[in-house]
């Protein structure tokens, strides 16, 4: 299977062609980096200069796709150029190969090249001075620094800046992603809260309306129909008031002017039980006066409200007991009703989300919730931990 070589970058191909043409121009006019009588020139004549020039230009085209290979081959081409009359463009292209190997090469290569070129620069400075003992020997170190160390150092700086910028971009993307996730979770939580509030506020009144309207339609008794219509009207008015309260909360949360009505508390349990009695339930309330945190009071009120609604729709005729007690830093809420009905169908349809909403309310406040049959009774129990510092 043939190995497909990577395609050179368009800019690198253009740079290679420009370098080759520039080198040919200098070669054509006879400009070299060393005179013909220089002792280091082993390959005299004009033609040997072209081979390292062509090889370096080819390496320049691979500076991004094969930076290490291009640098290694470029080192050999530069060594060959050193023993000829030389071409300035070959040296310039080699410095770019050093730079590209640091910028585009693997991380290990990018770390090693500055150290290697630094050591070569020190050696090119110290050794000639120690051997020749003349100031002109320092020029070898200067040339090595310009050709090798400076491009490597520049490439290291550029690479660090690029990696820093890339890391900052990734952090920004991660921050935006986390912010979007937090926003989506906040929207989901708010929708769930609104769904619980809407269900708990309206279900009780609509259930009573459905039950009494069914009774009014099924019984041919003017007095019974009149009483049923009275209950229907009362629950309609109360349900409308609760809906207005919810709308007021929503408007206030979006910057509206209307002031929402206060959320219900345990002080409103008496009126809640009175409304349940008007709807036909035999309810007893055992709830001594107590001080609890506002969120706990609202959750306990909603659980009692939903439990009475379920008793109205599903429970068999019989007493319903509501009891609240505060002991050992815990508010205990218990609602019991008769278990089972004489027929299989509830007197009003249910959404199936009542128990889910009550369990969510308890969990949000770190409490517990349980509902189920207990002998001949259906028991709903919730327990909320209380904090003295949060008592209202």
Fraction in beta strands: 5-15%
Distance between the termini: 79 Å
DSSP summary: helix tally: 10
How many strands appear in the DSSP assignment? 5
Total domains: 2
Give the overall average pLDDT: 82
If you compute it from the alpha carbons, what radius of gyration comes out, rounded to the nearest whole angstrom? 44 Å
> What is the helix content?
55-70%
Order of helices and strands: HHHHHHHHEHEEHEE
Structural description of this entry:
- The chain is 63% helix and 10% strand.
- The chain is built from 10 helices and 5 strands.
- The chain has a 5-stranded mixed beta sheet.
- The chain is rod-shaped and about 130 Å long.
- It starts with 9 loop residues before the first helix and ends in a 7-residue tail after the last strand.
